[in-house]
Amino acid sequence: MRSRNARRRTQRRPSIECLEQRYVMSADPLGGLLGGVLEQPGSPPNEPPALVHHAQADFWLDPLAERDVDAQLGEIQQLLAGADDLTGLTQVRNDYGFLGTGQTVAVIDSGIAWDHTALGGGLGANYRVVGGWDFAENDANPYDDGPAGSHGTLVTGVVGLDRPGTIDDGVAPGVDLVGLRVFDDAGNSYFSWVESALQWVHTNRNTFANPITAVNISLGTDWNSNTVPAWSTLEDEFTQLKADGIFVAVAAGNAFTTYNAAGLSYPAASPSVVPVMSVDDDGSFTYYSQRHTRAIAAPGRSIVSTIPDYAGNQNGLADDFASYSGTDMAAPYVAGASVLIREAMGLAGYTVITQRTIYDHMLATADTIFDPATEQNYHRLNFAAAIDALIPEDDYGSTVDAAHDLGAVGSSTQFAGLVGGSDDADFFSFTAATTGTALLTTTTSHYLDPIWTVADGDDQLIAENVGNLTVFAVIAGRRYTLGLTSRAGIGRFDGTISVSPLPIGDYNHDGVASAADYTVWRNTLGSTDDLRADGDRSGIVDDTDFELWGVAFRSTTLFAFPGDFNRDGIVYAADYTMWRNTLGSTTDLRADANLDGIVDQADYEVWKAALSTSTIGTIPGDFNRDRVVSAADYTVWRNTLGSITDLRADANHDGIVDQADFGVWKTSFSPGQSPPSSASTAPEPPGVVLLLAMLLPISLTRRDNR
To answer: What's the order of all strands across the beta sheet hosting 469-474?
Structure first.
């Protein structure tokens, strides 16, 4: 029973709606459910039979038995992987990265155990299960209650369960979900509840952040025909959803061995829905699946999916899985497939996408299977063929030699295209119209996560960046090549490249993007009058200009060298302070000398090596590189005396800090001061404080209170 404010209910039994148990768990395919439970000899021929879930004719696991599901997951995952290989879903994921993001699927069933870890772990706008309704209890909590529940959670998992790092994700693991519960705790249902659920979908199709684009119905009745029964009550609703452009997948039925003739259960027989048959992972019909030539077949046998904890190991954790079979499992497979096909159609530029559009495309790209039992050919979903047929041809050259020429680039040049696969790359070339800094910006769609490379005319890599902002130095008249690939999935892109005679981010116009430019940005943030820091020329100084400065600051190489973390043209103690204050950061990467995405010990080593060997901007004896020889330099010498690794004070570059280096410092020490008289015995000069501890870092963090 429901643990969430459970309440007693009286079962309503109208004379025209007979009720029976929703499903019977049986491991015996001949003497089990398909042996006759669906038969209702006492029902008048013009009255609707009981609305029941399609039960499995063949089971790997009996959910009512006390068995260890997890112990069999290895074998089950292999079966599921075979199913995904059969349809081409594995290839689609690897090549294109479609997830179903931006759409919602409504599941009309026994509810959803929305606390399941693979279904988002909660209910509401911030979770995968964004909402729904319980028509049995008339409330907004569509939880899949026991004791007769779990079927809706299974079905939902096939549509979109998400288990990162495993091979048994649902078909569309990025889709949002809506649960519409039309079975009570005992497994009883009414056509009126299903009818209300369909009406609810129409009313709420645009209520959530992402529109409802598909509905799954894995339930049916004792019926085997291609026509609608006289007692049907759902046709108006199905017609409306079809007009709404919503794809409705319905299980074809599991009673072929009862009828031994082609036909569909109801509501699968409705002309306004897409009926779904079941095949084994070898591609042949599952023997119990009802079938018809206008239906589409998909994997439905031994499909691993989510179940509530009460139907699993009952350990208090909502993380249970089981394997089920039936057209019940095939229907949500096709519902999920419709979401990804719709997504691919959007990428391909389709402006009107309906159930008919998707259904016709499924049939046009489907495999043909022959059924000896009915001596007819049927359609089986070929997911890879369906998606491949939608992806546009490559629009730009995929090699450096075939790069698309953008011509001479000065103020701004726009271009657009598509990265259409995991192995696709687009290349562009241009000639810099002026010497300065090039700014490359991109906006992307779908799953495109851009990786840009920049090579000079000698094909030498001069820049590489993950993301939508890339900054690099250019020289007038020289040719450069841009290469674009994706780190994740496919998508369209719009790019803009411009060349400025001043470095991007150089807001004080001193020829280098440095910490001083951050100060200009901070002091003019929000201004529409003082636009010195308006790097993107948007007419206001905003966060985008900070991002531009940050990218330029990190990537500037014309005016800096390894270890010069504050870009002031010299490696000294202030750079160490910047490293120390950003140690461990993956966002503030000013001190990320080796560009590995994190400030770590390796970056300190770069600074230390540069400090020990650099002579740029220094004078003999200036061991801390502060441009003056003072007592602080003596402290550096004293603390590194004898070192052959920390060579900041190795003035004569003989590989060791020794007495000779003290002599260099002593000679350079300013007249009028009193240096120690002996290198080996002299105490530290009064008032000396190690410069590294005194320097305050230049804060490049955005203000919390502006």
So the answer is: 413-419, 491-500, 436-444, 469-474
